[in-house]
Write a structure and sequence with these properties.
six-stranded mixed sheet, alpha+beta, protein kinase binding, integrin binding, 18 helices, EGF-like domain
């Protein structure tokens, strides 16, 4: 409460306290009272006539109240729009729940209209009181996988205890029931036909077919109906450990009509399980790629899109639970307690309780979780427009710190009224926007309508020919708004037959800003404004002033010169862009008593070298062309009277090169070894003197010229080469012929061996025989 009163006190003192602490308002781009109101919350406008002097810009009317009054503006002539707040609807808070009332009131006011000035915050108070006996709708969502068989048996006997626990809280309680396992596709569930019908252990007889999520019982206040429906349920089963609990919670949240959620009730989902959960992306394991659409798909009490759509993400589920004012209670076994505690950090208004091994403590768990949820009040907002900020300051015993996204009060008893101070700030002008403020888990809301207070109500005289404007204009917040045919600060210029745009164009330099933004265009000429220090801008286009030159040691032009149109004119003996240096060449002198070797200028006792030459004294040029190449033609003509410059060597080269013919080099300088136009190698050294093109060259008298080639040797060698090539070609041909003959001979020998000749004699070739008698051997 003290914080709130202190804030209101500061708001009331803002005019005389906060504004006076500011030195002044920024006047850039301020041309009217509206521009001033949009510039900064501490800025106000003086509408007093004749407040500005001749030639002074109208932007000086925009400043803090203290500064304007100091300049002579009367208090009643100062325009300072304030924030306005109107409570449109504020029904009183209800004490207890009455069934005859359509809707108990737990949050007040219900509608507020704000008209805000940009940057200026406004604060209002919101009251909340939880109604005694407020209705409770509890949806019991149970994991029916095989590992929960003992828990189901206990839950079937808990109907009376559940209703008794809720009736201790309220006389208007309802309970619904739903069950879930997982998607009936691989790898989550065995898709064998027999296993789909009976996914439990073979020895377990009471088993129902596999399913994803089934809505069993809509909200009812009948204990017997609840007990009957739960008794009809049996255990089912699946393959993997995580279950499809997020699928089930999403359908329970978005299928409001089927579940039977009442409009005026505290909505609870109690999720009991001993396993973790699948979430968005896990469906890819089964080839399910379609994302969850956050819509209701229950037909014949079953979730029909279980095998078609992916699991919802935690963010999607949290958004739908918050949107439908549903508070989840996770009743889980100890092995997954940490997993669900991490989940509650992402889902607002949720609690975790640890189940016993057979769920016999679930009733007490629900009572404890409900007590924690109902004793914690969290106020937040929806649909906040851009450039609008909200800060909540709780005003209660268990208040949390002030926050921009929510305000929290903890340990709040039922029936106790608490308060939140809500501070709203608009950074820019906005038109007819709205947002809602609401407690999490409660249907009551506060609608805040926003608009901007960016214009000034100056109560201007209706006279369109006001004397202040020379009878040719009207007054608008102290400034003349000229009639057609007149222009000027006081409408003193009649443009006659000339076009106003043409006159104004003559006040623009290079088609830029009119009078550089430092003056007014009066009859085609710039009438320059005065500067903040009292001097004037000057120039044809008000482009000059004598206050914005470079500074040195925080002094304009170092105190050693005069500022003239943005540039320093230095006094005698000083130089530099800010006259920061004494005129001296000591630091620029070289060994040959030149300044920067005549390759730069000495400024502020330091050489500023020409392009390529290096500091500190511009001695070497690392980026210049190699003089061995650029001066070769001059060296050739000066030393050997040859080359392209031999006819005008004295004109082309003697001014830039001082040369001497030597037998050997004695001075250490740049050595060059280049080939001239006659093919001879010239050796010379170059030393750069002062200036850019002034060298001293020592040239060796003897050139290295190659001997001419021997004609006889060339001809003899050519003939010998041709002859040798011819002989080698003949030998190669001979070798090829010889190898071919050998091949043919071997082929003939092989064919001869394979032939078989007849052994009979050819009668054509038989030898003739002749018989001769020898008388000596005649037998007588």
């Amino acid at each position: 409460m003290e914080k709130y009163l202190l804030f209101l006190l500061l708001m009331l003192m803002g005019e005389n306290g906060l504004c006076q602490q500011e030195k002044g308002c920024s006047k850039s781009m301020v041309n009217s009272c509206g521009d001033c109101m949009r510039s900064a919350p501490e800025c106000v406008w003086c509408k007093q006539l004749n407040f500005t002097k001749a030639g002074e810009q109208e932007a000086v009317r925009c400043d803090t109240k203290a500064q304007l009054m100091k300049r002579g503006c009367k208090r009643e002539e100062i325009i300072s729009p304030e924030n306005t707040l109107a409570i449109v609807k504020a029904d009183p808070l209800s004490v207890s729940f009455d069934k005859q009332l359509k809707q108990p009131v737990q949050l007040s006011p219900q509608k507020i209209s704000l008209r805000l000035r940009p940057g200026l915050p406004t604060t209002f108070r919101v009251s909340f009181k939880r109604v005694q006996g407020y209705p409770v709708d509890l949806y019991y969502l149970m994991d029916l996988s095989y590992s929960m068989k003992d828990d189901l048996a206990n839950v079937k006997e808990l109907g009376n205890d559940l209703f008794a626990a809720l009736k201790s809280i309220t006389n208007s309680a309802q309970i619904g029931f739903g069950a879930f396992v997982d998607k009936t596709v691989l790898p989550y569930t065995n898709t064998n036909k027999e296993k789909l019908l009976k996914p439990c252990d073979e020895n377990y007889q009471e088993c129902q077919a596999a399913f994803g999520y089934r809505h069993v019982l809509s909200m009812t206040s009948e204990e017997e109906q609840f007990k009957t429906k739960v008794t009809e349920e049996f255990i089912s089963g699946n393959l993997d450990s995580p279950e499809g609990s997020l699928d089930a919670m999403m359908q329970a949240a978005v299928c409001g009509e089927r579940i039977g959620w009442r409009n005026s009730s505290t909505r609870l989902i109690v999720l009991t399980t001993d396993a973790g959960f699948h979430m968005a992306g896990d469906g890819k394991l089964a080839g399910i790629l379609e994302p969850n659409d956050e819509l209701c798909h229950i037909e014949n009490s079953l979730y029909t899109k279980s095998n078609v759509m992916d699991y919802p993400s935690v963010g999607q589920l949290a958004m739908q639970l918050e949107k439908n004012n549903i508070q989840p209670i996770f009743a889980v076994t100890e092995n997954v307690e940490d997993v669900y505690k991490q989940l509650t950090k992402l889902i607002p208004k949720s609690e975790v309780g640890v189940l016993s091994s057979n769920s016999n403590n679930v009733v007490q768990l629900i009572k404890d979780a409900y007590k924690r949820l109902s004793s914690k009040v969290t106020v937040t907002h929806d649909n906040l427009p851009e450039h609008v900020s909200v800060v909540y300051t709780p005003n209660c015993e268990g208040a949390g710190p002030a926050g921009e996204s929510e305000g929290i009060c903890d340990n709040v008893p039922v029936g106790k009224e608490i308060y939140f101070d809500v501070t709203v700030t608009a950074d820019t002008c906005i038109e007819d926007k709205s947002f809602t403020i609401r407690p999490l888990g409660i249907k009551d809301t506060l609608t805040v309508t926003l608009s901007s207070n960016c214009e000034c109500d100056c109560d201007d005289p209706p006279d369109s020919r006001h004397p202040h404007c020379n009878g040719t204009g009207r007054v608008s917040c102290g400034i003349c708004s000229c009639n057609e045919g007149s222009i000027g600060q006081f409408c003193e210029c009649s443009i006659g037959k000339k076009d106003e745009l043409t006159l104004r164009a003559s006040c623009q330099r290079n088609n830029g800003t009119e009078c550089e933004g430092r003056g007014d265009c009066v009859c085609g000429r710039c009438q320059c404004h005065t500067t903040e220090s009292g001097s004037s801008y000057y120039g044809d286009f008000c482009e000059c002033d004598d206050e914005h030159c470079e500074k040195f040691q925080n002094k304009l032009c170092g105190g050693n010169g005069k500022c003239n149109c943005g540039r320093c004119d230095c006094f005698s003996g000083f130089e530099g862009s800010a006259c920061q240096c004494k005129v001296s060449e000591e630091g620029c002198r070289t060994l040959n008593n030149t300044v920067c070797y005549n390759r730069g200028t000495c400024k502020c006792n330091r050489c500023e070298c020409k392009e390529g030459y290096q500091q500190p004294r511009c001695h070497k040029c690392l980026g210049c062309p190699d003089p061995c190449l650029t001066k070769l033609n001059c060296i050739e003509c000066l030393g050997f009277e040859s080359g392209p410059f031999r006819k005008n060597c004295s004109v082309a080269c003697r001014k830039s090169i001082f040369h001497e013919m030597v037998d050997q080099f004695t001075v250490r300088s740049k050595k060059c070894h280049q080939k001239d136009t006659e093919g001879c190698w010239i050796r010379f050294d170059l030393g750069q003197l002062f200036g850019e093109d002034h060298y001293k060259a020592n040239i060796l008298k003897q050139r290295d010229c190659p001997k001419p080639p021997s004609v006889i040797a060339i001809i003899g060698g050519s003939i010998a080469s041709v002859a040798l090539i011819g002989i080698l070609m003949l030998m190669l041909v001979k070798l090829l012929i010889y190898m071919k003959d050998i091949k043919e001979f071997r082929k003939f020998e092989n064919e001869k061996k394979k032939s078989k000749w007849a052994e009979a004699d050819n009668p054509l070739f038989q030898t003739a025989t002749t018989t001769v008698s020898n008388p000596t051997f005649t037998g007588e």
